[in-house]
Amino acid sequence: MSLLLDEIALAAARLAEAGVESPRAEAELIAAHVHGVRRTELQAVPDAAFDARFWEGVGRRAAREPLQHITGRAYFRYLELEVGPGVFVPRPETEVMTGWAIDRLRAMDVAEPVVVDLGTGSGAIALSIAQEVPRGRVHAVEADPIARGWTERNVERCAVAAPYTKGRVSLYGADFTAGLTAAPGTGELRELDGKVDLVISNPPYIPLGASVPPEVGEYDPPAALWSGEDGLDAIRGVERAARRLLRPGGLIAVEHGAPQGAAVYWVFCEEAGWRDTRNHKDLARRDRFVTATWPGE
Ligand SMILES: C[S@@+](CC[C@H](N)C(=O)[O-])C[C@H]1O[C@@H](n2cnc3c(N)ncnc32)[C@H](O)[C@@H]1O
Q1: How far is the CA of 45 from the centre of ligand 1 (A)?
Q2: Most exposed: 32, 72, 151, 269, by fewest CB within 10 Å?
Q3: pTM of the model
């Protein structure tokens, strides 16, 4: 055994005691980050190279700071994103909805599909679509200026890693529950009314007063989490924005909390003017997103 592997075993025990769900994996990821190696290369780190900053990272994680804030990175589909204070850490559940949208966009008989991502945060959904739907044009909306700073960094980062995404993601400082009026200098969304092929959103959806783990409640920005008494305020705002933006036959995909499948179905039901409304599950087989078509075709 190497010194580093011994320290990782001790750190994993400390993280387990602190209530971290995957303590060994997270201890290894902190060690890999601090030593600048892949997780599979940890056993090759010489004892003399052991870096005591490992224990600083373990201490932060034991205090329930998210791993992604400690490493400064989050992985989402084929993207490596910069994250930290003031931006929501993208989650694996959202990868499933994004994959659904990518499949539908690729199958569309449209030369350059137009997409709007409402509440883009780090840009995880918008940039995945730009990366995986090479002729897609993505308009990303984010109300919070601090979160927008992170989006901008990730848009630039992605343009370096995947140059064909350059110029295909536009960012707007706007509130999708308040008519999508963009802040000065951030572009005009009105031009998109009735022209959008797909609207996608992972909006805030936690009911006020619900209990959440410390990683969420203390580190994800409040604007990314809370959404009124029933958690559906922002989703109703997404519905209003989508009916304005979508062309006839355009699609909506919206993420929600596991217990909200039926309620969100009714927000997008036939009686409200939508068709083909469907509930979808995440990888843990929990209700996770709703899709529907704006009629007219
Ligand atoms: C749950 S986070 C999702 C971020 C990203 N799309 C993802 O999936 O990782 C929701 C985001 O929506 C933004 N947001 C919340 N309400 C908004 C509104 N009314 N208008 C625009 N953005 C909003 C928040 O600031 C936050 O960045």
Answers
A1: 40
A2: 72
A3: 0.94
